[in-house]
Amino acid sequence: MPEWIFSLALVLVGFLGLVGGGEYLVRSASALASIMRISPVVIGLTVVAFGTSAPELAVTLQSVWSGSADLALGNVVGSNIANVLIVLGIAALIAPLSVHSRIVRIDVPLVIAASLALWLVSLDGQIGRIDGLVFVGALLGYLAWSVRQGKTEAREIQDGLPEVSDPPAKPGRGYLLKQVLMLLAGLLLLAVGARLLVMGVVDIALVFGISELVIGLTVVAIGTSLPEVVTSVIASLHGEGDIAVGNVVGSNLFNILSVLGFGALLAPQGIPVSHDALIMDIPIMIATAVVCLPLFLTGYRVTRVEGGVFLAYYLAYLGYLVMRTTQSSLTQPFEIVMLGGVIPLTVLAIWYGWRRDARAGL
User: Fold this and answer.
1) Do residues 29 and 61 lie in contact, with contact meaning Cβ atoms separated by under 8 Å?
2) pLDDT value at residue 241
3) How would residue 157 be classed by pLDDT, with cut points 50, 70 and 90?
4) 224 Cβ partners below 8 Å, 6+ apart?
5) What is the mean pLDDT of the chain?
6) Distance between CA atoms of 101 and 249, rounded to whole angstroms?
7) Strand locations in the chain, DSSP E?
8) Is 126 helix (H, G, I), strand (E, B) or coil?
9) pTM (two decimals)
10) Cα gap 107→45, rounded to integer Å
């Protein structure tokens, strides 16, 4: 049996472990937070967001420990790009998404700021331990702020949080033990899934001569974004657009602050940043965050047209990665076309949304 087939099997099993582990982690953590009477806003903006980012954290830590740091950075950057373009794109195509004003005023600007900070600390070609410490400190500050805000905004954002099955009024030891075991099972699945996934993709990269950065930006990024995809699609089907959008925005913030923060702290030599990631992939991640602001401001919603634009952007990005990896002669002309086409297409989508909302009196 060819070596790459076995490696592909490892990748598939790893994906299943990541998705299952993330699901168990989110469900059990939400239930435990409810039992301990933690504010609903904390459950939605911290526990759920961190839970859906857990696969990225597991893959990044495993990559750092195994010496595949390019995969660690590519996983986070690629996942953030995929979260916006794929997750919101698919969810919006299923049903237009409403966007809570708080997300536009506070959370999206925070994601943009964190993305810019990542680019700035990467200019020296490395995300060092001091950088990781700053990211983790910012994460703790965000968590503390969320707890405080949760006390005053619980009623305002209650409808925009994931529904969690209400535990018994007086949960017994059996119920509590079940949630703890689910939490441990989720962590175990994440650890095993991350290990198998990293082993598989690194082997495939070596067999086919594909860089670990590209593998991390595509295969691993999409795979670790599956929890966000499932959560946002289900939310969209139920008409809960705030859940879909909040899940993506919160997850992207956690990916940068917690995943890369802890990864840089634990990496012996920090996380190296390649030239391609610095001049192209990270700026694309920043652009996807920035473009959310004007699109979300069009009546505080994401339409099917805008969702289609997001998916078109991601397909173009995948095409660019393929050309860049194969050193195609079409790479430079493609870059020119994209730079000349993406901005007008985005402006057209925003103009369409504003015109639609003006006619509707929004």
Assistant:
1) no
2) 63
3) very low
4) 18, 55, 56, 59, 75, 79
5) 77
6) 13
7) 97-98, 126-127, 271-272, 301-302
8) strand
9) 0.74
10) 10
